[in-house]
Amino acid sequence: MFIVKYRKIFFTISIITIALSFYAMATKGFNAGIDFKGGSIIEVSYDKRPDIETLISALNGAGFEGARVQMAGDSDVMIKTRALSEIDRQKLTQTIAINGTKMEEKKFSSIGPTVGAELRAKAWYAIVLVILGIVLFIAYAFRHVSEPISSWKYGMITTATLLHDIIVPAGVFVWLGKEVDTLFVVALLSIMGISVHDTIVVFDRIRENLKLRVSNDFATTVGTSLRQTFTRSINTSLTVMLVLATLFFFGPTSTKDFSLILWIGIAVGTYSSVFIASPLLVVLEKRQNK
Fold it and tell me: How far apart are CA 139 and CA 117, in angstroms?
């Protein structure tokens, strides 16, 4: 199949996107949300909502410089700022009541910097543990496969593709200046689950074709397996991406970033499962036979 034949092109594309992602992370850094660095968020609903410039000007004048203002729906406003005391909260509420405009406070939450740091550490632990669990599962599931590629190599390649699948979406989010919060971590964990599912489907077909001895050439067996699973993988991913696109364009503001990173992650995960993971098996097989 052309995927195996032209694997160097697909490898190059992935290397470039990963390099750009690391460059973005190194130069711009993650825009941590209040979940990870601490802060306060207030959501209010106006009878007659003021424009964003008026709100920002009022907040800056009242000493809330750097506050992020986000419009939601037709009448709601979300404001994210530093961690506020009760006195600061009351001052903020008075400030955004522009000219006595009638409004209703719908939500207020505050997270201290210590809690934010703890959540950040737990997020990393969750990602590492999920990757470790997936690798162990792959190694166990393919424990009877020893020729021409050992089972642990399937797990190693799965790990590489999983890292690929979370690094690239994370890099895109950094480029876009999007805020990283707990929903971002949930999205990354979801991406890994969906991506590994696609990878296992292809690997399982390779395992079955090895048992059936469809060819004495491993590269041909991999190409045949990819051809047999290609349509299924693409159609499944496109269906999910269509739903996520609908959620992004027509869903609430609070889920836009979540649906966006999932959309990117599923696209990248499908690419890696089809164009990276299986061709890497061919590369390892050829190197060990040299």
Answer: 34
